[in-house]
Write a structure and sequence with these properties.
With 460 residues, the protein is of the alpha/beta class. The protein has 3 domains: 84 residues, NAD(P)-binding Rossmann-like Domain (Rossmann fold), CATH 3.40.50; 208 residues, Mur-like, catalytic domain (UDP-N-acetylmuramoyl-L-alanine:D-glutamate ligase); 139 residues, Protein-Tyrosine Phosphatase, Chain A, CATH 3.90.190. Helices cover 34% and strands 21% of the residues. Strand 18, helix 15 and strand 19 form a beta-alpha-beta unit. It starts with a strand and ends in an 11-residue tail after the last helix. Its EC number is 6.3.2.9.
């Protein structure tokens, strides 16, 4: 008799899991408490997979022998509580997919920088000639790709939510970038529980596996007990540190020294001079990706060539245009204070900073000193800018209020001089004036491209 599998959630990961389960001979039922997007509904219908939307029919769901749940569904959801009570096995799409492939996984997690590091690692491996797929939190279902299973490697971006429901998933190379407070409402407001979720990336690794981690991150140092790790640990740092046997560190701004204690490999160097990535946090992201690529067999020369051709995901310190020697940089993805700190720290020119939006209880204290050093003017963009004003008035030489992106960019352009940067790095969520951070970034780019040359820009 066929095993009955229920998939909870019918977005990318859920639909992919449903298709793989069907391909492997399971009887499949998909349930989503919200409306299912038309494209996903069509996929399920075309495959002849039964589904429901706008509800969870508990009587039906509780008949499941296995449940694969969307990472977005919290433990406190009624359906999950009922399944736990009945002791039904609940796993993630990543766990399920990993059971049906012999491919090696390069898995990346961290609070910040996951997407950039995942895209870069994938790019480095692909350019080195490896057969590699890209999946996970980045928007492509691993389960759906595993149906054809045509890759020898998969590079995966994994959130803490995706790691919550893994059991036997075992990455060949795991990358741990940083751990800072985020999503704590899902972890009983405990940083330790959130860190435990991140560290699940390494829980099943063995002697043949590698854990690449950021030695400069205090919380990783606090929660990662390397003494109990069976994998090769490969720490990296922005600097040479005598307290670690570092696998990678920067000799100078442009040179990563790599020393992998495997196969008697001699130390080598990788230049990042031609990389388009800006800022110290991207130096960390590059170090992690380069170490992963070296472990996978890419040569320093292959890595250097690939770094120069890398294009990051949009809205992450993305140079939109240069007009009259002023750079316009879109960092709309910087929806928290730490991400904006990285942006301000990474840019070496004077900055006209556009910030503001829906405040998430932000504490701006950590960026006051950077703003004092680097920000020439702050253009506030939000429905309520009182908290920004209260923090930065008197810290930056000039501060203005705006309520639309077009106005914000025009004012910033008027304030910027040749050799300076207009930076959108909001620190805040976007929902007061925009649909999401992508919409905010797109409006910034459109406004930047609409600017006329300097002779038409009003002087201040």
């Amino acid at each position: 008799m066929q095993k009955f599998v229920v998939i909870l959630g019918a977005a990318e990961s859920g639909v992919g899991a449903a298709l793989l389960a069907q391909a492997k001979g399971y009887t499949v039922f998909v349930s989503d408490r919200a409306p299912i997007q038309p494209a996903y509904k069509e996929k399920l219908a075309n495959a002849g997979i039964e589904f429901e939307e706008n509800q969870h029919t508990l009587d039906r769901i509780l008949l499941a022998e296995l449940v694969i749940k969307s990472p977005g569904i919290p433990e406190k959801a009624v359906v999950i509580k009922a399944l736990r009570e009945k002791v039904v096995s609940i796993i993630s799409e990543i766990e399920f997919a990993s059971r049906y492939t012999k491919a090696r996984f390069v898995a990346i997690t961290g609070t910040n920088g996951k997407t950039t590091t995942t895209l870069l690692t994938y790019h480095l491996l692909k350019e080195a000639g490896l057969s590699v797929g890209l999946a996970g939190n980045i928007g492509y279902s691993l389960a759906e790709q595993v149906i054809e299973d045509k890759h020898a490697y998969y590079v995966l971006e994994l959130s803490s939510f995706q790691l919550d429901d893994v059991q036997d998933f075992r990455p060949w190379i795991a990358l741990l970038l940083n751990i800072t407070p985020d999503h704590l409402d899902r972890y009983e407001y405990s940083l330790e529980k959130y860190a435990e979720a991140k560290l699940r990336i390494a829980q099943n690794q063995s002697l043949d596996d590698y854990l690449i981690y950021n030695a400069d991150d205090d919380n990783i140092g606090r929660f990662l007990k390397t003494a109990f790790m069976t994998a090769f640990v490969l720490p990296f740092s922005l600097h040479h540190r005598p307290d670690y046997h570092l696998a990678g560190y920067y000799e100078d701004d442009c040179t990563l020294r790599v020393h992998l204690p495997i196969e008697d490999r001699h130390p080598d160097k990788v230049s990042i001079e031609n990389s388009p990535l800006i800022g110290q946090h991207n130096h960390q992201n590059m170090a992690a990706a380069i170490l992963a690529a070296r472990v996978a067999g890419a040569s320093p020369a292959q890595i250097e060539a690939a770094l120069a051709t890398f294009k990051n995901a949009d809205h992450r310190l993305q140079l939109i245009r240069e007009l009259d020697e002023v750079q316009y940089i879109d960092d709309s993805k910087a929806t928290n204070v730490e991400a904006a700190w990285y942006a301000l720290d990474g840019i070496k020119r004077p900055i006209v900073w556009i910030a503001g939006g829906t405040d998430k209880g932000n504490d701006y204290t950590s960026i006051v000193e950077l703003a004092q050093q680097k920000v020439k003017a702050l253009v506030c963009l939000g429905v309520d800018n009182a908290k920004l004003r209260a923090t930065f008035e008197g810290v930056v030489p000039h501060l203005e209020e705006t309520q639309s992106m077009a106005d914000a960019v025009q004012r910033a352009a008027a304030l910027a001089s040749p050799g300076e940067v207009v930076l959108l790095s909001p620190c805040c969520a976007s929902f007061d004036l925009f649909k999401n951070y992508e919409d905010r970034g797109q409006q910034f780019a459109a406004a930047a491209w609409a600017l006329p040359p300097s002779e038409s820009v009003p002087s201040v």
